[in-house]
Specification:
Blueprint (H helix, E strand, L loop, with lengths): L4 E5 L4 H11 L4 E8 L5 H16 L4 E5 L2 H8 L3 H20 L3 E3 L4 H14 L12 E2 L2 E2 L7 H10 L16 H16 L3 H30 E4 L7 E4 H6 L3 H9 L7 H8 L6 E3 L3 E6 L2 E6 L10 E3 L5 E4 L2 E9 L15 E5 L7 E4 L6 E2 L8 E2 H7 L4 H6 L2 E4 L2 E5 L3 E2 L11 E8 L1
Parallel strand pairs: 1-2, 1-4, 2-3, 4-6
Antiparallel strand pairs: 5-6, 7-8, 8-11, 9-10, 10-11, 12-16, 13-14, 14-22, 15-22, 16-19, 17-18, 19-20, 20-21
């Protein structure tokens, strides 16, 4: 941890004060962050004042944020506890980025791990939820996880530390507090070494989870085939292979729960449904397309469908995560070279045949074009079907148009009517930049 900048989340309670004291005895570069959620009136302000004084005592820089937690919970329609969690971790992450801290440290301990286990168990979870709180996850470190609450209290007493008591921790209307006050003491009464036994069990569960992870990687290699035609981030799962598993619900869970899916019955039905059926999690979409399930991320700007106008003088047009580069090339008849041709990411048009402004838009029902290399017109719906495009592929397609005519299915096929010839005097070269 040498040369790392660490940010400690400090509430003023005994756990974070013990961690502060321990870390202050090292050479680590340490900074503090305190959240005032404005939920406990004068007590919350007294906690903030206490933390400020302790930060001065330990000679540590302190960041403080005050939140209107109730208003946030009301606006986002979530519980007060969830609102406080989202607010603090969002702020912590902003601090890490802004101040270039390397890690966030929290004072979770072994009893917290036990409580989290039973919370997840009571709500229903898979093996991941039973593995407890990790000592390290992304940018968060939890150095006190191996130690019990009793260990922490003993250290605080011996070192004559000061701390603040949060009396809301005594309110049994919260599930975590109910487990802490009623279930945990009973378990420790039944088995005084329960916490050590529980820690051993967690280690076995983690080891089992690693075996499951290794096995699921083999499964993923088997059932995932290729990336999307128009969007490489789309993952293709082979339906045939998914149906072959004797207990495919268990496999579906392991494959899709990381993407927020919980409707296992719906996913099983999707395996045997017609193309075009789809279900959604909060972050992802799962679409049935022929012999595949297609997994794609839902983003705020997933499909910007607004048409773009292109004037003769324009040289660059933005399209979602890509762009079109426009270049005009003057030639004489003797300079015509069929080797210019067309490719997936560029096309050449006889500019004198085009009508400005050009436009770029998404496809619509009834659209057609005259595919280069063929005679006659073809509906785009038929072209998409022949090319085996999924709904996702079709949504990602852009069309370059001259007036009402489609001159290029961008990145795929251009129109025969606007190709260059030995009569061409001016070429418009259009390049797709991805």
């Amino acid at each position: 941890m040498g040369n790392k900048k660490l940010l400690l989340a400090i509430s003023g309670g005994i756990d974070s004060m013990v961690l502060l004291d321990l870390l202050s005895k090292t050479d680590l570069e340490l900074y503090l962050a305190h959240c005032n959620f404005k939920l406990r009136g004068e007590d919350a302000d007294a906690d903030e004042a206490f933390v400020r004084s302790e930060a001065e005592k330990y000679h540590k820089m302190l960041h403080v944020a005050q939140f209107d937690t109730k208003a946030y919970a009301s606006i986002h329609k979530c519980s007060i506890q969830m609102a406080a969690r989202e607010l603090r971790y969002s702020w912590f992450k902003d601090l890490l980025n802004e101040k270039e801290y390397d890690y966030l440290l929290t004072a979770h301990h072994a009893d917290d791990n036990l409580e989290t286990f039973f919370i997840n168990l009571s709500r229903g979870t898979g093996i991941d939820g039973l593995c407890g709180i990790p000592e390290k996850s992304n940018y968060i470190l939890r150095p006190l996880l191996p130690f019990s609450k009793e260990d922490i209290q003993t250290y605080a007493t011996e070192q004559k530390l000061r701390w603040r008591e949060d009396h809301s921790n005594e309110d049994s209307k919260y599930l975590r507090n109910k487990i802490r006050k009623e279930l945990t003491p009973l378990l420790k009464e039944i088995n005084p070494s329960f916490l050590e036994s529980f820690s051993s069990t967690l280690n076995h569960l983690k080891e089992t989870n690693e075996i499951v992870g290794d096995a699921m990687q083999i499964v993923r290699d088997k059932v995932i085939e290729k990336q999307g035609v128009t969007d490489p981030s789309v993952i293709h799962f082979k339906v045939k292979d998914l149906l072959e598993f004797s207990n495919n619900t268990a496999y579906l869970y392991q494959l899709f729960y990381p993407f927020g899916f919980h409707q296992w019955g719906d996913i099983k039905s999707l395996l045997v449904s017609q193309s075009g059926k789809q279900i959604f999690s909060k972050t992802h979409r799962l679409l049935k397309h022929r012999e595949y399930l297609l997994l794609s991320e839902i983003t705020e700007n997933h499909s910007d469908t607004a048409a773009r106008e292109i004037q003769d003088a324009d040289t660059l047009i933005d399209l979602d995560a890509s762009s079109l580069e426009m270049e005009t090339i003057k030639i004489s008849g003797s300079e015509f070279n069929k080797k210019l041709g067309n490719g997936p990411n560029y096309a050449h048009f006889d500019k004198d045949l085009l009508t400005y402004p050009l436009s770029v838009r998404k496809w619509e029902k009834g659209d057609y074009f005259y595919p280069i290399g063929m005679t006659g017109k073809k509906k785009l719906s038929k072209f998409f079907k022949d090319e085996k495009y999924s709904l996702l592929d079709k949504e990602n397609i852009w069309l370059l148009c001259s007036g009402a005519d489609i001159i290029w299915i961008i990145g795929k096929r251009m129109d025969n009517r606007f190709k260059i010839s030995d009569k061409t005097k001016t070429i418009l070269k259009v390049t797709l930049q991805t």
